[in-house]
UniProtKB/TrEMBL annotation, chains A, B:
Gene3D superfamilies: 3.30.230.10, GHMP kinase, C-terminal domain
Metabolic or biological pathway: Steroid biosynthesis; cholesterol biosynthesis
Encoding gene per record: MVD
Protein name in UniProt: Diphosphomevalonate decarboxylase
Domain of life: Eukaryota
InterPro entries per the UniProt record, alphabetical: GHMP_kinase_C_sf, Mev_decarb, Mev_diP_decarb, MVD-like_N, Mvd1_C, Ribosomal_Su5_D2-typ_SF, Ribsml_uS5_D2-typ_fold_subgr
Length: 386, 386
């Protein structure tokens, strides 16, 4: 970055990710250190991404932030943590700790504008993409390179997993300072080319209990969460890594569903209990089990984050049939011409016996839309606008 | 019982019970031995009871059974277990094991007719009342006295808790033969005279996954259930006994709600997951928490068995106000003149600040009716019809 221009600006994009072994609960809420490791699939940015532009200029009077076009509070503690950490790394790497040798830009105020192409705070990990993008943009702006997941983690825990493409593990780490609580790629997005992802958007409403407050209450009150984190997750992580390495959809899908259910079980064991699944979510779960039972194997696997929307994993050759099953089970509203978004889906005709075994009591209008995507790469630098 | 009459007949009644520390999972499914101890409140028979008439006669050609007026399969293995056990005890007590000295009636066929005054298999423990009543009726018919909860347990696990009034613990026991897996009264129904119970009937539909199949799947697949049974329930039982002895509604109510939530959490951790709560159940849970939060203490406590109906515990001086809160939150259908059943409920007017804090988004018609009852006595012998 040259520092003699009046304006230095970078634009980056970052992906959302969907955990298949869930993160729920912090052991340190300042540093955002989790009580267990987690593992996620990075979603392709062609369908879901955050775009962030960050600029510094000697003409800027104060740090400012815009979220989806509206100015927001730049003083948010987590945003400030990320800013402070990136600036600290910039000083350290330029000057070996000598503040005088730091780049001139560090004295300038920053303007940040960020946009999602998907609904905010609806259980689609928008904060993960947002903080991953923010940290990457700031790092490029200040010329910082290397391991950044530890910084992104301090914005939003799951953001550290959006720093990589494909299949990503966030190691819980053991150190009190969090230096070993970092994300690591298990396999790149090219590893499992047949894997597809369907986001079934049940509701774009903001969730009633945010993740931060919810997981704190769970840590404080749920004995089942404590047991899960200590005794159950380590083995699940090891199994999931193996299923991914072997591209074993049966094992991957089964464990993905079990872990989603267990996460929501710990929410219910929280006091007062937290419910993220609603009756439509439960209908999708039952539908997936009927569909798999009909086929005699795991053809689709659901997972739900802190919201009612389902994320379905399937192999490419299952997508057309399952999408048709979903369309028959949740017939779109008459004006639902955008019911299917994202990657193209072929047409499928359903056998009568499949229909009668799997499609029971259709509920018109229960789904807003389906988004078809696949695993994708980590964050990317875009061209800086002129 | 004299054996020279052509017909010997007895009629008994038995109560339902509602667990506050839940039973879910067997370690032996033939003997019905549970993986954890449980604790329940016996509901008053003035509102919920099973009535069973059993008769023997030399003129009867075969054993026969009627449930709510319709003939049913008398060959059901659990019913046969109860019949066999009571007849075995009759032989043993009459003759010290000598079969020849057994009462003549043991050679006769039995006719059994049983009726519930509440919906069957809707999460209201109808099988508990049913088997408790059956075993008591058979025991009186054959002149068997003494400990019968071990026999009732072999009909339906929770039936053993319906053999006593008030507050009842079912000890899980340690022996493989189940001789120590018996029910015991913790306190009689007179112990806590202010305690009241409201059954909020959400749906009288039969449940989708029966308890027997559901709990077996949970034992086979839920690691959280295993942990709950082994590590969490023993302490909860001890605390619950203490709360009951001290008539500590705050402690009793808190633990009742937590244990209900944890039971449903283990259902969700089951694979495939089991859902007994629906969106109306969840609204009732949220309403109870808002109501308690408004009052700054635990005024009402919910618990849900294997179905969507809520059972609410409260002290007598809370009932009128909370019933009005429920009526405002779930306005009865226009023909809902039987909305409130059971013990009388006084009228209450709600303060404006209570209404605005607690009654949000009413859902008309979501509740069928409310049944007001209280803890009651164990099974009773009725007058034998002429």
């Amino acid at each position: 970055m040259s520092e003699d221009k009046t304006l230095t600006m970078v634009t980056c994009t970052a992906p959302a990710n969907m955990a298949v072994i869930k993160y729920w609960g912090k052991r340190d809420s300042d540093l955002i250190l989790p009580i267990n490791s987690s593992l996620s699939v990075t979603l392709h940015q062609d369908q879901l991404k955050t775009t962030t532009t960050a600029a510094i200029s000697r003409d800027f009077k104060e740090d400012r932030l815009w979220l989806n076009g509206e100015e927001a509070d730049v003083g948010h503690p987590r945003l400030q943590s990320c800013l402070r950490e990136v600036r600290r790394l910039a000083r350290k790497r330029r000057g070996g700790g000598d503040e005088d040798a730091a780049p001139l830009g560090l004295a300038y105020k920053v303007h940040i504008a960020t946009e999602n192409n998907f609904p905010t705070a609806a259980g689609l990990a928008s904060s993960a993409a947002g903080y991953a993008c923010l940290v990457y943009a700031l790092a490029r702006l200040y010329g910082v390179e290397g391991e950044l997941s530890e910084v992104a983690r301090q914005g939003s825990g799951s953001a550290c997993r959006s720093m990589f493409g494909g299949f990503v593990q966030w190691h819980k780490g053991e150190r009190p300072d969090g230096k070993d609580s970092v994300a690591q790629q298990v396999a790149p997005e090219t590893h499992w080319p047949e894997l597809r992802i369907l986001v079934l958007v049940v509701s774009a409403e903001k969730k009633q209990v945010g993740s931060t407050a919810g997981m704190q209450t769970s840590v404080d009150t749920s004995p089942l969460l404590k047991h899960r984190a200590e005794a159950l997750v380590p083995e699940r992580i090891a199994h999931m890594v193996q299923h991914i390495r072997e591209r074993d959809f049966e094992g991957f899908g089964q464990l993905t569903m079990r872990d989603s259910n267990q996460f929501h079980a710990t929410c219910l064991d929280t006091f007062p209990p937290i419910f993220y699944l609603n009756d439509v979510s439960r209908r999708i779960i039952a539908l997936a089990h009927r569909y798999n039972a009909h086929h005699g194997c795991t053809k689709v696997a659901y997972t739900f984050d802190a919201g009612p929307n389902a994320v379905i994993f399937a192999l490419a050759d299952t997508v057309a049939e399952f999408v048709e099953v979903v369309r028959r089970s949740f017939p779109p509203a008459p004006n639902g011409d955008r019911f299917l978004q994202g990657l193209p889906v072929g047409s499928a005709s359903l056998a009568e016996e499949l229909l009668s075994a799997v499609v029971l009591e259709p509920v018109p209008g229960a789904l807003q839309y389906i988004l078809h995507t696949k695993p994708g790469p980590g964050q990317r630098a875009g061209a800086a606008p002129a």
